[in-house]
Structures are given as structure tokens and as C-alpha cells.
Amino acid sequence: MPNIGNTPQFRASLWINVEKVLNLLYTYVAQLVNLSRVLSKKKDPITHLSFLDDLMFYRKRKIQ
């Protein structure tokens, strides 16, 4: 915890770091959304299922 005298600097540093983390989180979530969009549109040439459906099928099989 900060000392009484440097609370404003601590608060400013805290918000800068929170903003950096949120920007990084936004970047990764946007990449995941883009990846899911691409996987849902592209189809496997052999099974004619979307890659996202194929991925979910294997994920369900692995859990059970």
C-alpha cells in the first residue's frame, strides 16, 4: 500500500496499469472472436463440416 504522501502517484500508476491490462484483454478477445468467425466459415473438404463444428465434436469426445 502507498504511503500517505504518494497516494496520487499510486492511483495514477494503478489506473495506467489497469488500462494496459484491459487493452491487452480486448486484443486477445478480438483475436478469439476473429478466429471463431473464420473457423465457422471454413469447411473441412473431406467431411464438409465447419472447422468449428469439428473442433467442438473432438472437444466433447475428449471430455467424455
Gyration radius (Cα, Å) is 22 Å
The number of domains is 1
Give the number of helices: 2
- Mean pLDDT across all residues, rounded? 87
Q: In terms of per-residue confidence, which ranges show pLDDT below 50 for 5 or more consecutive residues?
A: none
Q: What level of helicity do the residues show? A: over 70%
How large is the share of residues in beta strands? under 5%
Q: What profile does the largest beta sheet have?
A: none
Structural class: mainly alpha
What is the string of helix and strand elements? HH
What overall form do the CA principal axes indicate?
elongated
Q: Give the distance, in angstroms, between the N- and C-terminal Cα atoms.
A: 47 Å
Number of strands: 0
Question: Can you characterise this structure?
Answer:
With 64 residues, the chain is mainly α. It has one domain (4-63). Helices cover 75% and strands 0% of the residues. The protein is built from 2 helices and no strands. It has helices spanning 7-41, 51-63. The longest helix is centred in the middle third of the chain and has 35 residues, at 7-41. It is elongated, with a radius of gyration of 22 Å. The termini are far apart. The model has no long low-confidence stretch (mean pLDDT 87).
